[in-house]
Amino acid sequence: xxxxxxxxxxxxxxxxxxxxxxxxxxxxxxxxxxxxxxxxxxxxxxxxxxxxxxxxxxxxxxxxxxxxxxxxxxxxxxxxxxxxxxxxxxxxxxxxxxxxxxxxxxxxxxxxxxxxxxxxxxxxxxxxxxxxxxxxxxxxxxxx
Length: 144
Prior knowledge:
Layout: H1 4-7, E1 9-10, E2 15-16, H2 21-31, E3 35-39, E4 45-50, H3 51-57, H4 70-73, E5 81-82, H5 87-96, E6 101-106, E7 109-115, H6 116-122, H7 125-139
Parallel strand pairs: 2-3, 5-6
Antiparallel strand pairs: 1-7, 3-4, 6-7
Helix pairs in contact: 5-7
């Protein structure tokens, strides 16, 4: 069976919780990604920051992204998957929590991310259709 580790995008990078949102935006640009896992001081997952979070949660509210930290934007319980988890478990986690990006953890360390693009490359048309219906039918057109 295919595992999370086989379909993930390797080379994902943390943004430390103490880093500012302007630095996060720069890192997103450098890495050509729309989301970064947020790490605490022990390099443990404490959230995920998206480009939309920066724009809607900071800039649109009149806050200065040079003064707001990634950790201040982290909300809720971060979701993740073990690299040995089977694809069905990945899909269930993403569908049940209505998320579009999922950090992959191995030995308590970030080893990759799974995004919609990764799913599209590795799933059958039926699996992808079911996942899209499960995530987007309940949330509307917005993204996380």
